[in-house]
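Feature request, filed as a ticket because there's no other form

It would be nice if the structure record came with a short human-readable summary line next to the tokens. Right now we just get the raw output. Example of a typical job, pasted below so the devs can see what we mean:
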Amino acid sequence: MIARIQGEIIEAPADGSVLIRVASVTLRVLVPSCAESSYFDEIGQVVELHTLFYIESVGQGNTLLPRLIGFRSPEARAFFELFTTVKGIGQRKALRALAAPVSLIAQAIADRNVKFLQSLPEIGKRTAETIVAELHGKVERFLTPASDDDGTNGMGGSSGFGGPLGATSMCNQDALNWSAWVPSEQREIADQALAVLLQLGENRQQAAMWIEALFKRSAQAAVQDEDATDAPLFGDAQDVVAAVYQNKA
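Raw output as currently delivered:
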């Protein structure tokens, strides 16, 4: 079993894989969709990846191909192994579905947030419900950013905004100049939520408008609520993303 490799990134072809030269051998390594863009700026740099080796059956089982999957951290690899124990989720589907940081997906599972899980590529309502049913109570170790696979934990990781969930490190876009509806103490969370929405395939301008509208409605509701407190409108980026998709539904 190939458990870990260290080598130079020579190509990031944007097809769900990276090419890594290890000594005189070049390996094609599959990577989760949330991590794919983080390798573009690292071409020519040496990285260390924690890997999983498996055999993929193609052509109705007539052909067996060896595959290598790479992760920035052992925690991200462990979450992938757990995620693929869910009925109906194989390695390829999991690679595409993991379009958000591991810590964010783990938090959604812990919170039984089916709406958020449905927003991930290839995850429908039934599969999201199955994920919650099978993994709830098993994801506590993955709730911190140390589990994320977005380029901030491995050697030579790309830069990002950081933050409690590590979500914004998936996106190299500059932070927006939010309107007054987004309180200054909540703008880092808004930046993180925007990065997640972009990684999930949403249009940048549209996603920013959704977030602005969400904060505006929440602020107006708080003003009208006589029992409202001075607590933040949203606790973290997951709250914002979940609320955005709830309003879209």
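Something like this underneath would help us a lot:
The longest strand covers residues 46-58.
Residues 204-224 form the longest helix (21 residues).
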